[in-house]
Amino acid sequence: MRRICSISSLLNQGFVQRRVFNKYLINTIRPYSEDLSSPKPPGPLLQYWKLVEQGRLQHDPYQETVALALEKLLGRLEQYEKDMEGYHIKLAEWEKNRENERRRLLMEEAEKNQRGDLWTSVNKRRSELLERWAFRKKSEDIEPGVGKWVSYLNRERKLDSLVGRRPTAPPAPKGLYIYGNVGSGKTMLMDMFYSATDGIVKHRQRFHFHEAMLKINEAMHKLWKNQVEEKSIQSSISSWIMNLPFDMKAKEWLAAEERYKQEFQMKNILPAVADKFLVDRQAGEKGASILCFDEIQTVDVFAIVALSGILSRLLSTGTVLVSTSNRAPKDLNQDGMQREIFLKLVDKLEKHCEILLVGSEIDYRRQLAHRSIDKVHYFWPLDGTAQKEFEKMWCQVINQAGGEVTSSTVPVMFGRTLEVPKSCNGVARFTFEFLCGRPVGAADYIAVAKNHHTVFISDIPVMSMQIRDKARRFITLIDELYNHHCCLFCSAAASIDDLFQGTEEGTLFDIESFQFETETEGAKLRRDVLAEGSVSSVGAPAGITSMLSGQEEMFAFRRAVSRLIEMQTPLYLEGVRSLHPYFQRNPQNFGNHSYSTNTVQHQVS
Hints:
One of its GO terms (molecular function) is ATP binding. It holds the Pfam family AFG1_ATPase. This is Lactation elevated protein 1. The protein has helices at 2-12, 44-53, 61-122, 124-134, 138-141, 146-163, 186-196, 209-229, 231-240, 248-266, 269-277, 301-316, 339-352, 364-371, 384-401, 432-436, 442-451, 468-483, 524-532, 550-566, 570-574, 576-579, 581-585, and strands at 175-180, 203-208, 289-294, 320-325, 353-358, 378-380, 406-411, 417-424, 427-431, 454-460, 487-492, 602-603. Helix content is 52%, strand content 11%. The strands form two sheets. A seven-stranded mixed β-sheet has the order 7-8-9-10-11-6-12. A five-stranded parallel β-sheet has the order 2-3-4-1-5. It is globular and about 90 Å long. The chain contains 23 helices and twelve strands. Strand 3 (289-294), helix 12 (301-316) and strand 4 form a beta-alpha-beta unit. It is an alpha/beta fold.
């Protein structure tokens, strides 16, 4: 078999030593203890086999297949990076020549218009009646702006003949779409690949679904705001038009043509967002781009429209996508929302990605937890003894962090801020009600997670239908704390396994109905995208509610429980110092925090 031959070759070369693995050795989810600061990180396959050899992972054939595919993709990226560097040099030259030719054509048209004004003024009275008669009926059928539209398209055709069409990008290596059950190792494998691309690909980004959707919202909001205020348009006009040797009328015509061009391009807002969203290319930096996208979902109409527009643009322009999901692409949209747009998205994913299943039914996070030695990180129930132990742990961590406990604020997307009631050198403390009982959302939780390596959350209740919104926010909060690799301490009313079982009011329903809880929700921006941005008449803005099935509900529960369990385990906690953004921004604090924890959860008696 290909797998055996590939691994055998690595073993024969001395990269890995084979050993007999105990059947109780289990798989965790991320290569937490890897040294990611080395100049050339090992590839995903070697990372995987190193963890297997160390006894941190149990060999899993599905995971090995994905690791091997990621290793092959990594091997193709170095040449692709060089090819894309050459392509972007050609593209920059083409864009420069095209813009110069476009301005030359505009100036020629402006000069003709200026010469024609004299003839028009002399013959104005004579032609007035003739024009009225000739265009009386036609004008009724001509849509406003059609003249500018025809002029714009004719000019674009001329530019194609003068400069040539846009250079063709070199064929991109196929990315990977990795799907499977909760806890099967999808995120681990993707993160192994992402760490291995450091130093190979200049432009690389990793996003979780929540953060990606918020950034798309933010980018769209900025584009619309710029269009409304017309600041960028006016500055670009004044920079080259105002000094031309034409009269004011000709300059006004040029300004109107420039404005129409930008307005025309703004109608295609999602491609415009994609061009600036994931790859922030600085001057002179060219090359390939990689997008690692964790937990692709289509929870509502906006997600389908936005993902279709953004990913289609990125894949068409050479971005390599490596993504994870709980479902195969064709199964993402269980309720048939915006089917035509969704099918286009599926077609793009299947064309540009190899679809791979991590088919294990085992939640390896839970198995790892069962091997851990009891030590308190998750305190339950909410009685006096548990609370005392929780307070004791808070004091211990604060003493270790050093400094004074104060209140602070952290910046949030869309220009907002969030208050942190208690914080000290990257350690923060909140109540459940403060974080989940108010109208906050993923943007706030991302801000908390990015700015604090350790988070204490107290007074977590058992989730029920009565607090469904709070439960939904709590799941989003856990997602972001996990994605940013925070150390988490909790005091709760029940064990992790019982936290989402519901109460006498009944079990939870539709828990993963993700909605944007930001200041842009309900604004003209989102309604326009859904009502006008290539959305068919089938979907109406009033119907933007998630219609997730019971299976999606189970995914949400299982993911939250699985991640809460993993966040208490030694292997996860060992990686906080090397993987959390706080220590990457403040390497001088790297040695000031340690987490000697071997726990999943513990009931304080």
